[in-house]
Amino acid sequence: MIPKKAVRTSAAAAVAFLALAGAALVPTAAQAAPPTPAAPADPSLVFEETFENVTGADVVGLVNYTGVDGATYTASPFWLNAAACNGFVLQGNTPIPFAGDGAACNVNASNRLVNLATVLGGGNADNRAVAAYTEANGGAADTLLAQSIDSGIELTEGRFYVASIDTAEVNCGIGAVQSTLDFGLSLPNGEIMIAGNPARACSSPNVQTVNGFAIRSGQFYSGGFRAEESSSAELLVRNRATSGGGNDFAYDNLRLFDATPSIYKAFDQETVEVGQPVTMYLTIVNTSELSEKTGWSFTDVLPEGMTIADEPNVDSSCSAEIDAPAAGSEVVVDAGSLATGQTSCEIAVNVVLGAGGDYTNVIDGASGLNGEPSASIRALVPSLSLTKSVNPAQVTKAGQEVVYTFVVLNDGELPLHDVEVSDPGPVGGTGTFGDIDCGEVTELAVDESLTCTATYVAGAGDLTGKPLTNVASATGVSPGGVTVDAGATADLTTVVPQPATTPPPAPVAGNLAATGGDIPWGYGVTAGVLLLVGAGVLLVTRKRTA
Questions:
Q1: What is the rounded CA–CA span in Å between residue 444 and residue 419?
Q2: H or E stretch at 536
Q3: Strand pairing report for 394-395 and 483-494
Q4: In whole angstroms, what is the distance from residue 453 CA to residue 136 CA?
Q5: Which of 93, 305, 362, 395 has the greatest number of CB atoms lying within 10 Å of its CB?
């Protein structure tokens, strides 16, 4: 007997079902879209000097200035030389000629310096700045523009720091020497210069004309410095240019920021079919000044039951060393870098959830990055069940029809397609098992059921008194292409037919009444013979007596 099955969907219908029910829930890596990264946060201020801690309009030498929190400053002798119009704190509305510590500066430079201080104050003539106008040449080694003392700066191991300065400059024309400032830190074990582009006021697109002179200004940041250990530090600035042929500027607002980038984690969907790959995103977001940050790292230890997919499909917009071995349990990222101007970067890797349930992944102990991000995802399990019954439950004669009923239930967490029921019919049965009719339904949503029927016509050889047993099976395909199945058994009892009986003949009128029971033909003949013999004996006896 050939097994009977429900009719399957057409290929086109299956594709449509996948597109609607499965593809949106379980996208492939190519369909996955990365999450929108968080906006860069502002760096947090560690140290700031605005050079505003001066009374009135006095001109104060840099070495004689004390900040609000007690910081003082030093520099190379050239950058403290008032005769070269360097190294004193002045105000935009300071009377000219300067008095006090700035008296040696000539009137021509003084006029430009008050304009520079006003521009650095955003047009506020009450703003103060430090003069660095170079009305003379300095020595090649005279590069230290300023260095803090007793600033109270404390660095924390593994975090990134960025220095900043505001500068304004005139005489940026062709051939003029332009200020070129580098940032550094004085640490207990020596001086460290911070990588990054130098601060160059003459390269700023921000230009305005004051009293007939074009002044370029801007706020400039260093690259990121990653502290290798926790320690105290002092902030310093060096000017590569020491020539008086140009190099005419003033500076303000010396700052140090904690500009450690942040790490975020996400999956490209909230749920995924168990055993199917899902894309995990690790996003590094810069701070808003967008300085270069090189040297961050982290290890993502996956939770139990989550592994890197056999095809990790690692993709990255980060400059980093990434180790994500197939079927592994850790993603290791080292030597990470964000370039100057880079807002964020992302690392994508496919992972697989080995069993149903909820998973939460936490990155703990990242170096050079803010945050211990976590992301959760749920693994969904496809499943179905099958029940089977037969009516009537007993066969008593050949040709009798019985109806089998099959109920398929999607008791899993995912829709199923290509659902079908098959049944070979009763084992050893001699009858005919008809087609299984499921009403052409082959798709089941979660918690939805499907009822199918089939008719069996009993054969004469089925009537043995023994039950006829048959096992049905149901299958369905998950959105991820996994086949799930279930089975169900039904017994059909049978009876042995009783032999047919012949009724006795009706009695004939005038004959003796029947005395009960059927007399076999042989007995009748024998009885007749005996009667004839008996009659003969009687006649002989009578003759002898006569």
A1: 7
A2: helix 521-545
A3: parallel
A4: 104
A5: 395
Residue 37: what pLDDT?
Answer: 85
- pLDDT value at position 508? 59
Which residues are registered as beta bridge partners of 376? Answer: 360
Report which of 306, 326, 443, 310 is spatially closest to residue 382, judged by C-alpha positions: 443
* Mean pLDDT, rounded, for 29-35: 54
What is the DSSP code string of 427-443? TT--SEE---B-TT---
Cα(451)–Cα(464) distance, integer angstroms:
31
Look at residues 404, 395, 543, 377 and name the one whose alpha carbon lies nearest to residue 472: 404
Q: What is the pTM of this model?
A: 0.78
- Is the separation of the CB atoms in 263 and 282 below 8 Å? yes
User: What does the radius of gyration of the chain's CA atoms come to, in whole angstroms?
Assistant: 50
Are 323 and 367 contacting, i.e. CB atoms less than 8 angstroms apart?
A: no
Q: What is the DSSP letter of 21?
A: I
User: 448 CB contacts (<8 Å, ≥6 apart)?
Assistant: 409, 410
Spatial distance between the Cα atoms of 220 and 205, rounded to a whole number of angstroms? 12
DSSP output for 367-423: BS-B---EEEEEEE----EEEEEEESSEE-STT-EEEEEEEEE--SSS-BEEEEEEE
Q: Which two tokens stand for residue 430?
A: 């001699």
| Dihedral over Cα of 172, 238, 256, 38: its sign | positive
